[in-house]
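User: Can you help me understand a structure? I only have the sequence.
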Amino acid sequence: MDKSISTAKRKVYLAVAVLVTGLIAIITGAYLLDQNNPEKYEDPLIVRTIPNPDKSKVTKTIEMITDYPTYDSVEQMLKEKDLKFVGKVVISDNGMTVVRKINKDSNDTMVDTEYKARVETVIKGKNIKDNIVLSFVGGIDSSTRYVTEGVPQLKKDDVIIVFASLGGDGKYYPLSGSTAIAVQKSYGRFEMSKHTLNKGSFTFTEKSLEHSVKQLSK
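Assistant: Let's start by predicting it. Here is the structure, written out as tokens:
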């Protein structure tokens, strides 16, 4: 009788241990998902944000020089190890300027512009949400516009194909110093600028890009 009671207790302890382990896994997973949600992420380096910055107040433009990789072809870019998302998105707003410190010990700042975007098509990538945040170098802070050659100035309802890495903050960062996007033109094709591809500006269709991705995945 004592032996059967002891066995029963062991089964209860085992069941409790399994339950606790499962709960820990669920909580940990939920925490990590929350940390990668750009809506929840709080960047301690952010000094200020400026939603829908007023372009009409810009009186000075400062060009920022950045060093970033360029590619011989779209196919070469598709092989980039940091590339986590390729897809067609629709810009949902007119952008928000984000001014943040370069690091916690510095008073120097950098300026980025973040756009919310609705994902229409995932051409390459895993676990891509329906709505994402894209972050670009440069932006408008007060009366000064900070620009980097080749980085586009987008607006609400623009349709683009983006080639982006994924940051630890859950936001997507276009490759090639924020230039790796292709804007849809009035005739339907997407145009990528000469600042991303060494051979110059290049146009393509969504279907041709999907074909290239499939060929590379074989």
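Now, to help you interpret it: The two ends are 63 Å apart (CA to CA). Residues 15-21, 23-35 have pLDDT under 50 and may be disordered. Let me know which part you'd like to focus on.
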